[in-house]
Structure formats: C-alpha cells, structure tokens
Specification:
By secondary structure, this protein is mainly alpha-helical. Helix content is 45%, strand content 4%. It has a 5-stranded parallel sheet with strand order 1-2-3-4-5, with no helix packed on it. The radius of gyration is 43 Å and the shape is elongated.
Length: 353
C-alpha cells in the first residue's frame, strides 16, 4: 500500500500505470468505495452507496403492485416486544435533565422575578382565565383597543410612579418690579405654567423689555399668551439687544402673529439667538405663513436654534440651511479672532521613520 501523503504528490503518469495494473472488478470496487458518500450532492442518488444490483429485471415496474406488496409485508412482520409497557403520563427510560451554566441560571432567575412582578391578582387571573373570546373582545371594545393588545397590556410591566414637578411659585408682580428696576441679578425669568399670569401682566412684562439690559432668557410656556401680548413683545424686541433666548411654546398664538414675531426678530437691534414657539393651539400654519416665517429667518444673521413645527419640507430645508450657515459664520469669526483653539492636548502622529 502507498501512504496517502505519497499519493497526493504522485504524477499523472504513475496514476495511469497503477490503474492499468488493476482488474476491472478491482476498478469497480474502487469506484464504489469513492462513490459511497451519501451526503455527496455531486454524485447521483443511485450511486451514493456501494451496493450495485446485478440481478436481471423481472419485468416492467408496476407501482400499484409494489405498494400492495410492501403493505402486505409490513402486516406480516410481527411487532417488536416492548421491554417497558406504555402507560399514559409515565416516561419510559432515563429522563433527560438539562444542565445549565451559572449565567443561564442567573438569566432564568431574573426572568422568573420579572414574571412574578407582572403577575395579576388571583381574582383578576381567574376572571381573565375563565373569560371567553367574546368577553375579551367586549372588554377590548369598551377600552377602544385591540383584543391582542388588551391581553398584552394586562400582563405588562407595572407602571412606575414619578412625583409630579412642583408648581411654579414665581409671582408675576415681583418679576415685573425686578424688570422695571433692571436689576443685574435678574438674568433668567421662568413663568412656565403660572396660572395667575393674565393678559395685562404679560403685556406689562413684555413692555419692560424695551429698556431692560440684563435679562438674557425668558420662558413663558403654557400661559395662554394671545396675539395682543405678542404684538407688545414684538415692539419691545426691536429695541432690546440683551435677550438671547425666548420660549413661548404651548400658547394661543395665531400663525400670522408668529410670522410678525420672526419679522421683528430680524431687526438689527435684536440679539436673540434661540427661539422656541412650537405647540400652539393652531399647529398647521399653511404654506403662505411658513414661507413668510422662512423669509424672515433668512434675513436674521444671528438666529442659531429654532423650535417650531413646519409642515412643508421646502420651508424646513431653507430654514435648516440658513441656521447651519449662521453657525458656520460664527465659527469662522471665532476662528479669525483666535478663539477656536481647543483645550484638548493631542499627541503628535508617528511617522514611518
């Protein structure tokens, strides 16, 4: 016999000499041995085993008679005797016990704890378990939800309770007095969710911005501010350069008044760089008003941040490009003044040498 390592490096001429020395039966046995792999998909299914039938055919294949013969042979063959008789609910043989790693055991433990937390009360569990499909559909119809979602919500994780934010204790009259005095400490005014703020007080607070030089941030959210108060604010902002941030979200400002506000912000004397005015009572402003707002923003070289809901992508694209342009101009000015140097220390790159 020749070792496999030597066979792999043999030349083609030596292979031919070896095959010439073999008899036809030996060559056939060698081919049968090479074609005996049942998993080789490159070989036809009829030659994937070493058995070759050499008997002469007895006649034409009759499929019906072949199936009848197979069934008769199966009925004549006696059944094997069972060593352990079958009993309902009894496992025969060795019971398989799965083995888990410590990580898998920890994961199973956490899942069991979660299932225990989301388990319903025994009474609720019994009621849902005994409910029919019609009952579940009726409950889902009452709750205006899908029956499948209703079942998923019934077994969902319990909701976490978060303490509500404390009410805003800011007093508008005190804020008005401080703004009239132009106190240096009054930099940030937050009147969010103040129910006692009426229209006259809002107008007086906005009117004080004409001469105020210290206030930098003003937030009046969810205070039912209307168009008349915003008109007063527009007149005041044309003469105010100290205010940098303005938040008027969730109020009752009409779309045309919002456009007038942005036109006032485009004045040269104004210094606001951030405006948030989304969530108004009328959210859809229309293409005419949105185009008017976009035109006003395009004339504003200082605005950097904007919070507003646009309906049309064309207007949104114009505004976004302009805001990016304003930020880039600010970066270039800062770089020209030498103030764009980062404090981070970078290690020099290594050269090939």
């Amino acid at each position: 016999l020749i070792p496999h390592a030597h066979i792999l490096i043999m030349e083609d001429g030596i292979w031919e000499d070896l095959l010439a020395c073999l008899s036809p039966s030996e060559v056939q046995a060698l081919l049968d041995d090479l074609a005996s792999d049942p998993d080789d998909k490159h070989v036809p299914a009829s030659v994937r085993n070493s058995y070759r039938c050499e008997k002469d055919p007895t006649g034409i294949l009759d499929r019906g008679s072949l199936i009848t013969h197979i069934n008769e042979e199966a009925l004549k063959t006696p059944d094997k005797e069972e060593y352990v008789k079958f009993e309902l609910g009894v496992k025969r043989g060795k019971v398989y016990v799965p083995k888990y790693t410590e990580e898998e055991l920890d994961t199973m433990k956490r899942q069991a704890e979660i299932e225990e937390q989301v388990r319903l009360d025994p009474e609720e569990e019994g009621i849902l378990g005994a409910a029919s499909l019609e009952d579940i559909m009726a409950l889902a119809d009452i709750l205006n939800t899908n029956p499948q979602n209703f079942i998923m919500e019934a077994y969902a994780d319990p909701l976490k309770y978060y303490e509500p934010d404390p009410p805003n204790q800011t007093k508008p009259k005190e804020v008005l007095e401080s703004l009239n005095k132009d106190e240096p400490e009054m930099k940030d005014v937050c009147l969010n969710n103040v129910p006692s703020l009426n229209e006259s007080e809002a107008c007086e607070i906005f009117d004080t911005l004409r001469k105020n030089t210290n206030l930098t941030k003003l937030s009046v959210v969810n205070c039912d501010i209307n168009d008349f108060a915003i008109s007063t604010l527009c007149l005041a902002l044309e003469n105010n350069s100290a205010l940098k941030s303005l938040n008027l979200g969730s109020n009752r400002i009409s779309p045309d008044t919002i456009a007038e506000l942005f036109e006032a912000l485009a004045s040269r004397n104004n210094g606001i760089i951030e405006v948030r005015i989304s969530g108004q009572a009328q959210q859809k402003m229309g293409f005419r008003v949105e185009s008017r707002i976009a035109d006003a923003i395009m004339r504003n070289p200082r605005l950097l941040k904007l919070g507003i809901d646009f309906q049309f992508p064309e207007v949104m694209n114009r505004v976004s490009k302009h805001l990016i342009s304003n930020m880039d101009k600010l970066r270039q000015e800062r770089k020209a003044k030498g103030g764009d140097q980062s404090e981070a220390k970078w290690n020099p790159c290594r050269t090939i040498d």
